[in-house]
Amino acid sequence: MDSLTQIVLGAAVGEAALGRKVGNKAMLWGAIAGTIPDLDVLSKIFVDNVTANELHRGFSHSILFSILAAPVLGWMISKIYQNKEADWKDWSKLMFLGLFTHPILDAFTTWGTQLFWPFEYKVSFKNIFVVDPLYTIPFLIFVILAMFYKRTHPKRKKFNQLGLYISSIYMIITLGLKWYTYGIFQTNLENQHISYKEIQTKPTPLNSILWTANIETEDSFLIAYYSLLEKEDIIVFSEFPKNHHLLGKMKNDPLIPRLIKLSEGWYTIEKNDNKLFFNDLRFGQLGVGTEASRFVFSYELFYDDNGILTAKERERNMEDTTPLLKKLFSRVLGNKS
Questions:
Q1: 284 near 240, Cβ under 8 Å?
Q2: Membrane spanning segments where (predicted)?
Q3: Residue 88's Cα: distance from chain center in Å?
Q4: Count of domains observed in the chain
Q5: pLDDT, tens digit (0-9, with 9 covering 90-100), for 141-169
Q6: Do 33 and 142 fall within a single domain?
Q7: For residue 273, what are the domain limits?
Q8: I want to staple 106 with a disulfide (CB 3.0 to 4.6 A). Which of 113, 115, 164, 228 is the partner?
Q9: Residue 272 lies in a domain
Q10: How far is CA 173 from CA 58, 113, 188, 238, 334, in A?
């Protein structure tokens, strides 16, 4: 999830692990531990976009990394303080929990995480968006409240636990909402006599009320939306042809299988103004509804001056953000127009 959420989770876990012994130092180092796995994004400085996306949520988000890094980091912290409040084992425990809960939380998002790296398998439950205020804000409030009490004060532990409990309950609720909305999409497909191969459902940005579904058919992908606040459970499916044939000779280039693997097979090829684009459907559209044709993750495919096939991330127009958010929240409220 987003950096703030991971910092809050790390701080809360650090407090639960060692707060009574070291006070706010536990929250500080828990927050740092919760941030460390996402430092893999720095790979974008050294490699191309495709490689960076392949590396993200890989080794640094694995159980193996948590096991290897925790004792090293724990030893370093114990040398910084060199007192009897907490020893190397205590700090190693805190760092392991901070490092490990990060990918566990990421596993509930759309992107997923390679928890069992080096095995090439992503754990992705797709029941919460990477930024969800209903998850983060209550959690953050309780962690801040806990900070203002002395480490031995009972309210400190109480507030920290409340943050952990409420965020966990909300996560469980989103799993239930995913199960419920999946049934709505499936029923509509059957009622409209649409044959399909697979369905993937996930929440839309910043909420767990409006859900979207990607449906694979023989020659195309269907995308649909459903809000829990809608008056009728009748869904309109928008069709996007796969157009995989447009790749032509490009399909034989090693870059294409990498992109296909990255998208887990959920992709379309789009030709626009004599430019070819590889659209990764897993992260949805820029906007909602039938008028939204652009996708969040899209790569322009072209041969550079050296004849090497290159994938460049498609530029996004940030000026469209405000109207897109307005349409999103209107759709959350059940307005289809």
A1: no
A2: 63-82, 94-113, 133-150, 162-182
A3: 33
A4: 2
A5: 999 999 999 999 999 999 999 999 999 99
A6: yes
A7: 194-333
A8: 113
A9: yes
A10: 28, 21, 23, 28, 20
DSSP string for 121-138: --B----S-SS-HHHHHH
Domain C-terminal end among 144, 173, 202: 173
Provide Rg for the chain, Cα atoms.
22
Consecutive H or E run containing 281: strand 275-285
- Tallying the residues shown for the chain, one arrives at 337
Two structure tokens written together for 87: 């020893």
Domain annotation covers residue 318: yes
Question: Of 173, 207, 222, which residue is a domain's last?
Answer: 173
CA distances from 275 to 50, 247, 272 (A): 18, 11, 5
Residue 226 covered by a domain: yes
Q: Which of 16, 152, 35 is nearest to 90 (CA)?
A: 16
CA angle, corner 206, sides to 175 and 284, nearest 5?
A: 80
DSSP track, 236-255? PPEEEE--GGGGGGGGGSTH
Q: Give 37-51 pLDDT, tens digit per residue.
A: 999 999 999 999 899
Rounded to whole angstroms, the Cα distance separating 224 from 125 reads 19
Per-residue burial over 277-311, b if 16 or more Cβ lie within 10 Å, else e, is bbbbbbbbbbbbbeebebbbbbbbbeeeeeeeeeb
